[in-house]
Amino acid sequence: DAEITQSPRHKITETGRQVTLACHQTWNHNNMFWYRQDLGHGLRLIHYSYGVQDTNKGEVSDGYSVSRSNTEDLPLTLESAASSQTSVYFCASSDPASGYNEQFFGPGTRLTVL
Amino acid sequence: GIQVEQSPPDLILQEGANSTLRCNFSDSVNNLQWFHQNPWGQLINLFYIPSGTKQNGRLSATTVATERYSLLYISSSQTTDSGVYFCAVNNYGQNFVFGPGTRLSVLP
Q1: Do B96 and A103 touch (CB under 8 A)?
Q2: Where does residue B5 rank: exposed (0-12), middle (13-18), buried (19+ CB within 10 A)?
Q3: Does residue A3 belong to the interface with chain B, where contact is any CB pair within 8 Å?
């Protein structure tokens, strides 16, 4: 079955380290998204991509970067992790060509920055 | 940008009771989704419902786009319905905006 996966599911890192979170989808969706979820803030958009080589900043993009070299993957990189980036990160994808633009979410990655 | 409100913020029910969750949005939308985040954190798609009414088992949803609201109905609630319910909307090419959620607790 087609799906969207994230790895790792849990990560503990130290302040200042570079961290990359992986997102992989097998639906061949053009659109992919990264969100973070924090208590009191709900889900907020970090970065998104509408296709290969396309990346865009979302609401809370500072300190994060993404790259899209193929349809299936959108890795999220924290260049120099900060304690404020402790959060749960969700990847999502959608296929606007279907006419529905329905988003499907991965299982999430819990990141702790010490 | 578009604003999304959900009510009530918290809801406690006895197993078997019915409930209605509401999502209000401040501008025209062409997409609306309802999600259930279970106690393990997983986001589960419930409905994609930019307009009209849909039903799936004990759950149903209605969106009245012209009046800028959507309702999620849960009938005969079960303890497995516990979690947080989010609505998310997007407005003609913009990205989805999530509401703050309704936290539902169903007691046995």
Answers
A1: yes
A2: middle
A3: no
